[in-house]
Structure to design on (727 residues):
């Protein structure tokens, strides 16, 4: 089992490293990630949302729906924990602890 | 060659870290160790994303002198030097991913507690033994 | 108002689930009606959206009004719209069906059960409707987390099965996220349509190659493709009956939808079919999944577990059908997504009724059931015939398309696997019919006609009606399959 896991890990790691070979250099200001969509946020954040912190603008405005999803994830986790650990404890509690 | 390594080794470090977590998830027999491995894996992915937001010589994406004079706001749209600030998008994505990670951790631990209540152990081998015994 | 309907599809179940615990504080029994209300509204909105798409083409909905590559947008074409209707209608049927089964299996947890149930549906709908790669991940996690919780409250052993599912599911989600990260690094965008525009210049990049591999590997784990299906049988067998009926049909189908989306919307068919051998690998993966699922299903003595392997085999049908990469097979694969969702929900509702009546779900529990529960078993026979592929049930038509597609592609192995699996289904289900006709002698030494009525011990109506409705739907889909194919699926298939 351990050998199999090790082989899988090495294989997956090698695949991931193979993918990085064509990646832009670290910190390259002209990489696609830094030139395609993100300059728009930096340029328009102040005008669109009057917020100097661009991360806040993207979080709450441009990609606000993701943040709604994020909140829903937390709610889901909370409800999941209640469902798993708390709900119905009172009735059963006396029988066996 | 040397320059290539220097400009890419950060990715490789994160991948190494991911694989540490991945190995723990698959090979460890203790359920909490599996959860820890899961966390290492996810954290490494977060580091990986964040490293894509770096621009050499840039600072945090908080615009300077933003609120000095309201008239300037209209001009600011063109005045911002994009090279001066780091890419904000990966930060936002990872804020979301961190929350997702914490939520997964919470549910995984809750399930681990249920398993512990049932079998009084978190070692997978012992659990399998107690299932086999009935 | 009309223009806002797409967002309502996701927001209604989310909002109703947030309010569900509050309703539960007031009156516990109301949660059931509350969930049904939410899902009915949701179903109405989905059906309306489907008609809007059929009438006016693809809908683009900007969330918060931000223009697409910068903000998130919904893109609803024929494929999404069909999936939305499938998801919302099936979850509505399962919600109606769930009442008595939840009252019996989880009496203390009704309130939170329906809360998480609605969140589960929210996650599914959010995955289907979105046009943004990262947003898809967020909703995938909502759906997965809710699924973990719902499965873990099942019978003895469910938490351990869930834990394994969590580990596998997280690996799948992480691989997907890594794939999205690789795409983001090389394109700078997360919007599917935008990425599609940028990618063709990058098709020879190693980054994109790796991204494809990891996206598909992640999705394959989520859809339980054969070698990585190991989490599925345990998890779905031990889940509460209502939960298996909800998740077993939908989770796999939604992952298959995501696979089609990634292969043919994010990447263009050109890459998936010509530049890389992805589709060839997929056909063989499908063949292996069909054979593996069918053989494993034969070996089971537990009814639900057997159904789980049937699901694994059905996933193979669709993966293989997509992999054949011709129009006919693609039509068959997408029609099979619809058919298989309906068939699987039918199987698991029957399994739930058997569990409700006999408190376990072994094959031997089917003894005597043809006499005790004639209506349930009639529905079960229709579902089984559909899985085997007997006309006029829906299963026949999608299999027919898939077989034609295999003939066009001259892929004999896939054809053989399809026929073999149909044969295995015949054995599987006729074995159960045979058990069902074993009348227990202890019920009386002789069974005369007049005693029959006294012995009938049918499932409660709230479970029976949805099950029969599914069986009828199966025949209707079969009869009207031509209309579905020419009006919806013909537009849903990617241009090859």
């Amino acid at each position: 089992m351990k050998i199999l896991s090790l082989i899988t890990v090495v294989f997956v790691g090698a695949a991931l490293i193979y993918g990085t070979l064509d990646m832009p250099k670290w910190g390259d200001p002209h990489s696609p990630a830094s030139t395609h969509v993100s300059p728009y946020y930096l340029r328009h954040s102040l005008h669109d949302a009057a917020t100097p912190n661009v991360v806040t603008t993207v979080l709450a405005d441009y990609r606000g729906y993701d943040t709604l999803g994020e909140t829903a994830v937390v709610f889901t986790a909370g409800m999941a924990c209640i469902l798993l650990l708390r709900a119905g404890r009172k009735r059963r509690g006396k029988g066996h602890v | 060659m040397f320059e290539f390594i220097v400009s890419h080794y950060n990715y490789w470090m994160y991948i190494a870290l991911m694989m540490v977590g991945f190995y723990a998830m698959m090979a460890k027999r203790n359920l909490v160790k599996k959860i820890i491995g899961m966390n290492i894996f996810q954290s490494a992915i977060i580091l990986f994303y964040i490293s894509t937001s770096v621009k050499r010589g840039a600072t945090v994406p908080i615009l300077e002198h933003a609120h000095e004079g309201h008239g300037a706001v209209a001009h600011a749209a063109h005045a911002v030097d994009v090279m001066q600030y780091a890419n904000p998008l990966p930060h936002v994505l990872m804020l979301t991913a961190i929350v997702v990670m914490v939520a997964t951790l919470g549910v995984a631990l809750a399930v681990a507690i249920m398993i512990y209540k049932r079998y009084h152990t978190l070692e997978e081998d012992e659990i399998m033994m107690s299932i086999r015994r009935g | 108002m009309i223009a806002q309907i797409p967002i309502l599809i996701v927001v209604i179940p989310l909002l109703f689930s947030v309010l569900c615990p509050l309703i539960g504080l007031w009156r516990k029994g109301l949660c059931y009606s509350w969930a049904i209300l939410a899902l009915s509204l949701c179903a109405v909105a989905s059906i309306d959206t489907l008609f809007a798409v059929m009438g006016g083409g693809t809908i683009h909905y900007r969330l918060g009004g931000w223009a697409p590559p910068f903000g998130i947008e919904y893109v609803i074409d024929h494929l999404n719209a069909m999936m939305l209707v499938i998801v919302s209608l099936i979850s509505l049927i399962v919600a109606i069906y769930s009442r008595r089964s939840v009252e019996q299996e989880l009496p203390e947890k009704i309130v939170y059960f329906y809360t998480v149930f609605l969140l589960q549906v929210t996650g599914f709908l959010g995955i289907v409707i979105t046009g943004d790669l990262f947003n898809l991940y967020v909703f995938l996690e909502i759906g997965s987390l809710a699924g973990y919780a719902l499965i873990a409250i099942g019978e003895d052993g469910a938490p351990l099965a869930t834990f394994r599912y969590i580990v596998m599911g997280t690996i799948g989600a992480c691989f997907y996220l890594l794939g999205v990260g690789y795409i983001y690094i090389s394109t700078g965008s997360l919007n599917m349509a935008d990425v599609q525009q940028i990618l063709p210049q990058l098709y020879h990049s190693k980054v994109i190659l790796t991204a494809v591999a990891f996206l598909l590997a992640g999705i394959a784990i989520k859809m339980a493709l054969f070698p990585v299906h190991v989490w599925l049988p345990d998890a779905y067998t031990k889940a509460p009956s209502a939960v298996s009926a909800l998740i077993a049909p939908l989770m796999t189908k939604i992952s298959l939808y995501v696979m089609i989306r990634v292969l043919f919307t994010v990447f263009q068919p050109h890459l998936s079919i010509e530049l890389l051998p992805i589709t060839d690998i997929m056909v063989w993966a499908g063949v292996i999944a069909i054979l593996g699922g069918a053989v494993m299903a034969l070996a089971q003595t537990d009814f639900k577990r057997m159904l789980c392997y049937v699901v694994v085999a059905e996933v193979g049908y669709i993966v293989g059908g997509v992999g054949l990469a011709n129009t006919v097979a693609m039509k068959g694969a997408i029609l099979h997504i619809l058919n298989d969702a309906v068939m699987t929900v039918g199987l698991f509702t029957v399994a739930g009724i058997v569990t409700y009546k006999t408190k376990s779900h072994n094959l031997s529990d089917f003894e005597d059931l043809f006499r005790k529960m004639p209506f349930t078993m009639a529905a079960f026979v229709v579902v089984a015939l559909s899985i085997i592929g007997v006309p006029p049930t829906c299963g026949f038509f999608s299999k027919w398309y898939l077989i034609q597609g295999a003939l066009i592609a001259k892929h004999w192995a896939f054809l053989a696997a399809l026929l073999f699996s149909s044969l295995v289904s015949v054995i599987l289900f006729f074995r159960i019919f045979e058990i069902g006709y074993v009348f227990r002698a202890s019920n009386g030494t002789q069974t005369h006609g007049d005693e029959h009525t006294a012995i009938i011990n049918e499932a409660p109506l709230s479970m029976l009606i949805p099950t029969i409705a599914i069986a009828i739907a199966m025949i209707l889909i079969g009869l009207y399959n031509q209309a579905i194919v020419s009006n919806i699926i013909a537009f849903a298939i990617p241009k090859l």
